[in-house]
Predict the structure of S-adenosyl-L-methionine-dependent methyltransferase.
Amino acid sequence: MPAPSSMRAAMRLSRNTRARVCFPSASLSSTSSSHNLFPQTVRAASTTTSRILQLSAQIAAKTAVVDEYINKYNLPHASFAPDAPTEFPSPGLEGDGKSAQVLDDVSAAKAAHAELVKAVDEMKDLVEGPKEKIRSVILKDLFSPLVVQAIYHYRIAHAFPPGESITYEDLTSKSGLPVKNLRRLIYHATTLRIFAPCPVSPITSIVHTPASALLAKNPFLEALTGFMLEDVWKAAAHVVDAMDKWPGSEEPNQSGFQHAWQTEETLFKALSSSKSRIERFGKGMKGIHQGSEYAGKAFVEAYPWEKIPEGGTVVDIGGGVGHTTFDLADTHSHLNYIVQDLPPTIATAKATPLPPQIADKVQFEVHDFFKPQPVHGADVYFSRFCFHNWSDKYALQMLRSLIPALKKGARVVINDGVLPIPDAVNGWKAEEKHLISMDLIMLSIVNARERDVEGWRELFREADPGFRFLGATKPKGNMVWIMEAVWDPEGDVHVEWSAAESTPKDRVDEVLR
Ligand SMILES: C[S@@+](CC[C@H](N)C(=O)[O-])C[C@H]1O[C@@H](n2cnc3c(N)ncnc32)[C@H](O)[C@@H]1O
């Protein structure tokens, strides 16, 4: 569904206009809710149902939907017991009898769950009030990363199994942390429901909660926790210092990370000098992309590869060891594929034999994506999860390095995250908050950025007017969008197909042009 033109116009306008007063007028704010521009804002003298009553009704209604779904499929209810589900439960979707009805139920329950989380979040902020909000950020929340870092660092979650308790003394001998420090850290952790006081001896012992047990059970989440709290968190604390020292820098070695670690090396180079640190990074990245909402399969399914003529060429730029291309070659055998990356990655990729059915379809090539593209005349050049690692200065260079190789009508496709645009009426959803955090992670460690659709469009426009942006498509149930441009330097290319136009509607959540 295309974005309403009013929304696109508003996005452009808000980028181009200078600051102006943006509050509901006094007359509006004191009238009925239908005129209230800010339903999330608590109106001082409400004439209708108060916001907290509206929210509590929403919470009750959405909870009922979720509860009914859990009961219908006999799934475990949420609880703080050690064996409770660690994420939103779904019935197994494989096998016979898993009809479209099941998929519809899962998707409706997930939507209700997302609205429930959002309403609960707003309710908490409303009932606690703004002073408590600021106090939480600067006092309570400030120490949550410290506590989780200590749990990670001293392997406290591994010290005893779920279902058992452990005394602080025993935990001290297992972790090496003096009992006084251990106790104060764990007390804070229990405020986050990471560990809980033991019900029979709450002063001397603790038990696992689902969250603490998960840190020992899920190695990818554990690695991500380590990377985030031992590498990124320290960098984040230095972002303002870095911005003061290198104002407006777009260099990957002038971020909070370099300031914090007193190095001139990029994040990747610095991590690479320690085997354990770089392995943790790799595993942590798998942790981020573990969920189906990041799966490359959605890109393979949602882009209209079948429209590329027989014998066409597809180039996977910064393709790693080639996983996405392997899936592609498996399903679209009428095309030829070239995976490009830096020498060590290509050496690793070549060391593993390809499955026989794709062996003659896929080639590997060493190529630095800042240098001129060596494959001329391909039909599609795509890049997945590479552009968001770079600031505009470098992302522009990546696009411009393609130009000498592009034939008229060639497609340049970017499979990457898309930042949400602010919605003053409905506020942010939980998944949107994650994306916004991701943008700050990129700022903290490499001075790069996430982009909204308008940012992607601008990137192509600024790289060269010969790129014509064809739209951004969000594959069904997936967080990784497809941005597509066609090389059309004379403005005379007739575009017969594109992801935005040709992908069947049931494979797409949203299209923005
Ligand atoms: C986040 S990974 C994405 C890999 C792959 N596209 C995927 O989706 O799994 C970024 C990739 O960019 C590669 N890379 C980084 N700098 C590069 C450069 N200058 N030229 C080519 N590849 C580069 C890395 O080696 C890595 O494989």
The chain has 21 helices and eleven strands. The chain has a mean pLDDT of 89.
